Amino acid sequence: MFARRTMLMAAALAVLSMGARPAAAVDLTMYYPVAVGGPVTKIIDDMVSRFEKDNPDIKVTAVYAGNYTDTMTKAMTAMKGGQPPQLSVLLSTDVFTLMDENAIVPFDGLVSDKAWFKEFYPAFMANGQIDGKTWSVPFQRSTIVLYWNKDAFKEAGLDPEKAPASWDDMVEMSKKLVKKDGANTTRWGVEIPSTGYAYWMLQALAIENGQKMMNEPGNEVYLTAPKTVAALEYWVDLSRKHNVAPAGSIDWATLRTDFLEGKTAMMWHTTGNLTAVKDAAKFQFGVAMLPAKERRGSPTGGGNFYIFKSASPEQQKAAVKFVQWMTAPERAAEWSMKTGYVAVSPAAYKTPAMETYAKSFPQAIVARDQLEHAVPELSVHENGRIYKFVGDAVQAAITGAQKPQEALAAAQAQSDRVLRAYK
Amino acid sequence: MADRRHLAGSRMTDHAASSPIVSRRAGSQAWWNAVNAWLLLLPAAVLLIAFTHFPILATIRHSLFITRRNGTEAFVGLDSYRAMAADPIFWKALGNNFWFALGTIPTSIALALVMAVWVNRNMRGRGFLRLAYFTPTVLPMIAVANVWLFFYTPDYGLLDQLRGLFGLAGWNWLGDPSTVMGCLIVMVIWKEAGFFMIFYLAALQQLSPDLEEAASIEGASRWYTFRRITFPLLMPTTLFVVINAVINSFKLVDHLVIMTKGGPNNASTLLLYYIYEVAFTFQDSSYAATLTVVLLTLLSGIALLKFGYLDRRIHYQ
């Protein structure tokens, strides 16, 4: 009697659990960071649901956890709490930290054909390939570009089709673009954001000045190199000497609004904001590569897919399938058109949809063209800390609290102390 | 308990014959009383120990160790404290916290008192006024921060639009180290004063009207009545509010996440926000524990001051 009842219950349980989920479904949780304007979450949700339709045996839950730093924080905290996601998009530069924390697996062992890695732009693979292994696959990738307001250029008597090509050009043109109403400046010449990702902007300036910011093994930074200091001096001079940029720090998140409101004629920002700017701009605008000092240049930026070590082998396999689906040329092209991020493979730019789009909106391919001048984004061990040191130094100099030389020397000393452990 | 034992002892001398039984009964009764008291306190004590006292001890212990990448712990003694003493960001955060407390506490309490006295009178629209003063308290800090972020936005924020009316140039309120702290202080005063007002209002309504009547018969001026009668009688409330305000000045950091992220160049970093950054962004739990011990010491110091010193100097009715 008792045995029969137990068996019945077991059978009922089995039936119930089978009813709850389709046979052998794999559940994936993905953390996803949002760093730009526009309906990014909606676009991702839509892509995820189409993937699920194509692959009914895999269920993906996208969790939006804030900006890149917040998402990394959430992923690390979840991991220490024993419940990490199975995959996540995180800064491509977080790779050292994730390796140090023993959090991720390389893709090499999970894919059947490593030729897949060759389909991406090498510049985007650079941050993720360490010691001959591929630890991440690019997706939400960008470079910094210069947005300019053509109407403002016309009004200031400048050629609206010509963006500044050099640092000096940018200062000279900015001086003409500044518009004043008594003591009040109603339009600034140029704004470079100094909160959130200040290290990224400083790196762009340093590259253009011919200076690398870090070494390959990720345990050294070059903040006090004379050319890095000169880069920061140029940035500071925009507001303190030339008066073409507002004093004080410029917020990453509100800068797009400044540009759209016509408060600044030019801005440096991620290409990931392109579609959001395009949809909201009430004026003609152009997009250009960043101006050159010794050379053109921008760091690459943005997020890559990572697969977590703690996921089961089935989950890891499902995660790779999802990543391959998301980065396939048609999807990469679609993603690029909907946001402005750079599509991650040359094949994406050869799809008919992308070709048509680029013809009607040539701004869409500027960031891609800039890739030939691009270098990998600043990526070292203890990235979070180093970013803070650099960010603090930039803000100290921008606000006039310290001279660029002093501020960077302090950041260099702090970074050296932290990185000593990784030599 | 001591009284009762004394009582039992005195009975013992009076009735020598029955005394051993009586004293035993009294003794066991006292014992049962003690056990009962402890049993009643037990549920709360268990929760407090599990979720407050044990974590505090664990934090102190953790601050003496570092966790290696492979998960093993190594004893480093006071090394983390030495590193903290040499950490300029820590000192900056601590200093900021001091100015933040000094800027918010006296003003918000004074404002709360004035508002409470104001809305305690019989007048038209009193309910509406009380509600209006209390509204900021009801709003979540994150919402408040977003509203004030709009006020402070350079050039087209509310504040700069007002300045524009007078022909003044825009100012980068939150992007300038000299103004960022002041901006946050004003916002927090706005948020806190209504909350403290409620306590003062409750206390004012407890005061007997006789005192005020007597004072007016004696010909005391309103200001004199307030200074010599009302305010001293409100002292217990003031103490309560002060303690709350001090604790809040260490606890409130939500707005930093929205408005400044502690910047520019740490000009608005507060101790708790720095702890969050170290623990969760830098994933350095042992240094975060060290910083937490400092915060704990500060707050327990304030609690000791209240229970040990201030409580005795204040007149409770």
Overall description:
The complex is a heterodimer of chains A (423) and B (317). Chain A is of the alpha+beta class. Chain A has two domains: 21-142 and 301-373, D-Maltodextrin-Binding Protein, domain 2, CATH 3.40.190.10; 143-299 and 379-422, Periplasmic binding protein-like II (D-Maltodextrin-Binding Protein, domain 2), CATH 3.40.190. Helix content of chain A is 45%, strand content 16%. Chain A has 18 helices and twelve strands. In chain A, strands 1, 2, 3, 4, 7, 8, 9, 10, 11 and 12 form a ten-stranded mixed sheet that branches. Chain A has a two-stranded antiparallel ribbon with strand order 5-6. In chain A, α8 (198-208) crosses α9 (226-240) and α17 runs antiparallel to α18. The longest helix of chain A has 19 residues, at 2-20. Chain B is an all-alpha fold. Chain B has two domains: 2-46; 87-313, MetI-like fold, CATH 1.10.3720.10. In chain B, 76% of the residues lie in helices and 2% in strands. Chain B has 14 helices and two strands. Chain B has helices spanning 2-14, 19-62, 79-85, 88-119, 126-138, 141-152, 158-165, 180-206, 209-217, 222-233, 235-251, 254-259, 271-281, 285-313, and strands at 65-67, 73-75. A two-stranded antiparallel sheet of chain B has the order 1-2. Chain A binds chain B through residues 69, 72-73, 76-77, 80, 97, 100-102, 182-186, 194-196, 246-251, 254, 258, 261, 263, 382, 384-385, 388, 391-393, 395-396, 398-399, 401-402, 410, and chain B through 69-70, 88-89, 153-156, 164, 167-170, 172, 174-177, 261, 263-267, 277, 280-283.
